[in-house]
Amino acid sequence: MDLPTHRKPARGLRLLALTASALVPIFVASGCHSTSQGAIGATEKKKEEAIRTVKYTFQAEKEVTDFEDFVGQFEAVKSVEIRARVTGYLDKVNFQDGTEITENTVLFEIDPRSYQAAANRTDALVVQNEAHYKRLELDFKRAQSLISREVMPREEYDRVSGDYAEAAGTLASARAENDLAKLNLNFTKVTSPIAGRLSRRMVDPGNLVRADDTLLTTVVALDPMYVNFDIDERTVLRLRRLILDEKLKPRSMVEWPVFIGLFDERSGGSDSAGTMMDKQEYPHKAVINFSDNHIDVSTGTLRVRAIIANPMAATSKTRMFTPGLAVKIRMPIGDPHPAVLVPVNAISNEQSKKFILVVNNENKLEKRDVVVGGDYEGMQIVTSGLKPGEKVRIVAEGVQSLRDYKLPVNPVLLGGAGKGTPAAPTKPTPSPTPTVAAPAAPKAE
Known about the structure:
six-stranded antiparallel beta barrel
C-alpha cells in the first residue's frame, strides 16, 4: 500500500507571487507621486496666469497748453548800500535790525557839532560879503551916472566897475561855501533813499565813520520783486520758431506770463505734477519784463527776468517773498491745443527711446515707439506714436512682471474687470493623473 505524499507548488508560480508582492508598494508610490505632481502643476499654472495679467486703459484727449519748468530766484528791484557821506563819529542808530522802513527815514546820526560850526561860519561870510557887495553896487551906479556926464575920469570908473564885479564873485563863492556847509550838516543824518527792509547795522555808536567808505547797513526794496531764471537753448529756439511762424506773439506786443510756486507749495499735497496753471502748486503770477541780449556760452542758457507783486499781509504785516529765495517757475509756451495723454506708468524706456505696450486682438503685446512731451494732470502728453481718436488697449500696470512680451496676456481694464475688450480665454487646468491600482497576487492552485 502506497503512503500519501505532499505535492510542492511549481517553482514558476512561487516566483510570480514574490514578484507581485514586491511591485505593490512601487505601484502605490507611483500613483501618489502622479497625484501630487498634478496638483503642483495646477497651482503653478494659476500663478503664471496671475503673473501674465495686465491692466490696460485707453488714451485720453484734452486741450492742453505746453509749458516748460525752470528754477529761479527772487531778486530785489532796488538794493542800496547805506554809507556815510561825511566823516565823523557815529552818534545814534535809529532803527531795529531787519525792520521795514519808508523812504527818507533817518537811520544814523553822526556828531554834527563841527559841521554846524562850519555852517554858522559860512553864514557870517555870506552876510559880510553881501554888505560889501551892496556898497560897491551903489558906487558902481554913481559911477555910471558920472561917466555918462563925463565928470569922472575913465580910470576911476574902471576901478569902481572892477571892484563891483569882484564883490559879486566873492559873494557867490561865500554862498556856495555856505551851501556846502549846510549840505554836510544835513549829511550827518543818514537817510534811506528807498523804502524796503533793512539789514543789521554794521557800525555801533561811538565809532568813526569815513565819508563814502564805511558801510553802515543795506536796504532792499520788497514790492515789487524780480524773478530771475535761465532758459535753455532748446526752449529759446522753440519760442523763436513759434514767433516766426506767427503762432506766438512777441513780448513787445503782448505780456508773457509765468507762474511761480514756492518749494513747499504742492499740487494737492503730493509730488505729482499738476495742470499748467495749477492754482495750488503755481499760485503766483508774474510777467516777463526782460531777456538778455546774448546766450551765456558757459551755460548755454538765456537769462530772463519777470516781475511780480509782493504785497504785505494785512494782519501779520509780513511779505511772502524775499530776495534770494529759490522758486519753481512754469512758463506756458504757445496757445492751447488738443493732445493725446496716457498714464505715466505706461511709458517705458529702452536706451534713449520711449515706448508703450498695447494689447492686440489676439491678446498679445505689441511695442510702439512714442515721443512724449510734458505732463498734464499726472498724465504724460504723447506727441508722436498715438493718433487722436485711436482706440488701442494701452498697458498701464503689470509691465514689470512680464518677462516675455511674445506670450499672450490676460488683459483687465484698469478700474474694473470685465469691461472693454473681452480677455482671451484661458486653457483649462489639466485634471490630476489617476492612481494606478496594483494587480492582485495570483492565488495558489
